[in-house]
Every structure is written in C-alpha cells, then in structure tokens.
Specification:
The protein is of the alpha/beta class. It has a 5-stranded mixed sheet. The protein has a two-stranded antiparallel ribbon with strand order 2-3. Strand 2 and strand 3 form a beta hairpin. The chain has 2 domains: 67 residues, no CATH class; 105 residues, no CATH class.
Length: 204
C-alpha cells in the first residue's frame, strides 16, 4: 500500500529553514549555521558576508562578538561544501538500499525484498539578466518501505543535481551530465524511467 502525506513531499530550502520556530541561545556555531542557510537560500549572499555594513549589523546585534568570530565568505563556502558532501552521502546511501517488501507467494505472513528501481525527472532553464546561464536539475522518484513496516510504502524524492550546463542544450551534452550523476550515485543499474517535462524536439 503506497502512502504519501504532505510531510513526505520533497522539501525545499525555504521549508526547512522556516520550520524551525525556536530561537536557540547565541553561539558562534549557531551564527555560522544561520549564515550557511542565508547563503544557500538567497542569490548573491556570498557577496554580502564581507560587506562592512553587514558585519556592523552583526556586531550591533551582538556587541560582545569579536570581529574575528564573524565568518567571512571563505569560511561559509567551506561549510556549504562540507555539508553538501554530507547530504550527498546520505542520499547515496538511501538510493543504494531502497526497496519494497511484498508478501511471499507461499506464506502470507512472510515478506521478501524487491529491488527498488528509480525514476528521474530533469529540467533546464536559463537565469535572467545579463550574463544569463543555463542550469540542469535532476530529481529522483522512488518507493521505499522500512523493514519493520513492510506494508507502508512511501514515495520519496531527492534532488541529485543542480548544475551549470556548459555549452549548448544538446542531447549529447544533457546525456553526458545525466550519465555522470548516475555514476556519481552508483545507481546506473536501478534506472526505471527518465522523464523531461518538455516536448521540444531539440531536447529529445
């Protein structure tokens, strides 16, 4: 039985950041956490971190905070990259073990694991303004069920890539990126369907 609730839908960065209502006591680590969230949710936020007016605002809000404890964009960049690697590892591990359990043909009380397959959607678009750039996003869709609750099939979604598309929107270029992502997550043998919500023959 496949179940899907609002809480199980693919989350967004905005949803993750606004869901935390409690304000924790101040700490330098907490400041870094909030600056990481700012950077990954806002365009050009890296440029803000080193501006004098922004750093003065932080010190105004926390007068006892030494200037050297207000991280610059280099520190936040390191944090973003480190957390990206951690997130990729968690998603990769989940995709490796995704499976569902079905009742055994000869024993109604027994279940057997069925290797899960993964469907993909991807989309392309170009950023606005001068110096606009094309981007490619790849999202997985798969069903999983925990060992202790084999009847509870859950539809899951994970974004695997949001990458700059170098060159033209050609079939070969798009296919190369998708193949690279599949290899990165070691799921080439689990592909079920790859779908692009676009009917333009140039993309097919």
């Amino acid at each position: 039985m496949l179940t899907m609730t609002a809480s199980q839908h693919q989350t967004t960065l905005d949803g993750v950041f606004t869901s935390q209502q409690c304000v924790a006591p101040f700490s330098t680590r907490g400041l870094i956490d909030h600056l990481v969230k700012l950077v990954v949710s806002e365009d050009n936020a890296f440029l803000l971190l080193d501006k004098l007016t922004f750093r003065q605002l932080i010190q105004y809000l926390r007068p006892s905070l030494p200037q050297q404890d207000i991280p610059h964009h280099t520190k936040i960049r390191e944090e973003v990259l480190a957390r990206t690697i951690q997130a990729e590892s968690r998603v990769k591990a989940a995709l490796q073990v995704c499976s569902v359990f079905v009742r055994h043909a000869k024993c109604l009380l027994c279940y057997k694991a069925v290797k899960g397959e993964i469907s993909f959607t991807f989309d392309l678009w170009t950023s606005e303004g001068t110096g606009s750039n094309p981007y490619l996003s790849i999202t997985t869709h798969y069903v999983n069920s925990p060992i202790d609750k084999p009847d509870q099939w859950v539809l899951k979604n994970d974004q695997l890539a949001f990458t700059l598309l170098e060159g033209h929107h050609t079939r070969a270029n798009i296919a190369s990126i998708i193949a690279s992502v599949l290899k990165q997550y070691e799921i080439c043998g689990k592909v079920c369907v790859i779908f692009m919500p676009c009917t333009d023959a140039n993309y097919l």
